[in-house]
Amino acid sequence: SSLWALPNFLVGNLNVAANTVPELIELIKRSPGRFNYASAGLGTTLHLAGELFKLLAGVDMTNVPYRGGAPAMTDVIGGQVQLIFDNIPGALAQYRPGKVKGFGVTSAARSPVVPDIPANAEFLPGFDVVSWTTVTGPAGLPPAVVERMSMFTRQALESASLKKDFFDRGASAVWRSPQETVAYRASEEKRLGDIIRAAKITLD
Questions:
Q1: What is the pTM of this model?
Q2: Cα(120)–Cα(21) distance, rounded to whole angstroms?
Q3: Of 71, 97, 142, 172, which is most buried, counting CB atoms within 10 Å of its CB?
Q4: Which residues contact residue 117 at a Cβ distance below 8 angstroms, ignoring those fewer than 6 apart?
Q5: What is the pLDDT of residues 33-48, one digit of tens each?
Q6: Angle value at C-alpha 197, between 192 and 201, nearest 5 degrees
Q7: Which string of DSSP letters, residue by residue, matches 33-59?
Q8: Which of 135, 134, 95 is nearest to 111 (CA)?
Q9: What is the Cα–Cα distance from 176 to 179, expressed in whole angstroms?
């Protein structure tokens, strides 16, 4: 069963001469080859969000992979890199005190954590990249055990304190049945695999 979904947040250096996603897209189109975006490593959802942005917006940007979000954000604030798709908690820590500009979240709809920030999908239909997690076990678990674990997971996600804990971390509680979780994973692997192939991403 699934547990939560966590979108990323596109933010940029304060000197980026744009304040909205459409303005940012137009700016990048006028400056081919001049814009970079940081990510916390190759193949992460942060990297894939940037590549999907490039594909849907038709813009040219270069990914600059870092070993973790903290050093990547440091360089965005310092201006070494202009943009970053970061997990909401890390991005909010810099956005709220005004150290970076906020452009859009990567979920299909706005995040309740930052409802004033639009979703990229409002300008780029089909944009949807979130981190998500599930409760899993070894292969071959008896169906009765799977269903019991799923029931306990659903009950846990009805807890107001757990929902608040997720919210404070920028995530939303999401429950799916075991069957729905398997189907969702297969769908995401196909969809994200298409992005990886289109962007010619390799881990070499």
A1: 0.85
A2: 7
A3: 172
A4: 9, 102, 103, 104, 105, 110, 111
A5: 899 999 887 778 889 9
A6: 95
A7: T--EEEESSTTSHHHHHHHHHHHHHT-
A8: 95
A9: 8
Give CA–CA dist 24/104, Å, rounded: 11
The C-alpha atoms of residue 118 and residue 106 are separated, in whole angstroms, by 9
Q: What phi-psi label fits residue 187: left (phi over 0), alpha (psi between -120 and 50 degrees) or beta?
A: alpha
Report CA 31 to chain centroid distance, whole Å. Answer: 25
d(CA 162, CA 129): 23
Closest CA to 68 of 46, 89, 48: 46
pLDDT digits (tens, 9 = 90+) for 131-142: 888 888 898 899
Q: With a cut of 90, say whether residue 14 has pLDDT above it.
A: yes
d(CA 34, CA 60): 8
Show the beta-strand stretches assigned E in the chain.
Answer: 2-12, 36-39, 62-65, 83-87, 101-105, 130-134, 172-173
Residue 10 CA: distances (Å) to CA of 38, 126, 186: 10, 16, 26
Which residues lie closer than 8 Å to 193 by C-beta, 6 or more apart? none
Could you tell me what percentage of the chain is helix, strand and coil, using 3-state DSSP and rounding each to the nearest 5?
45, 20, 40
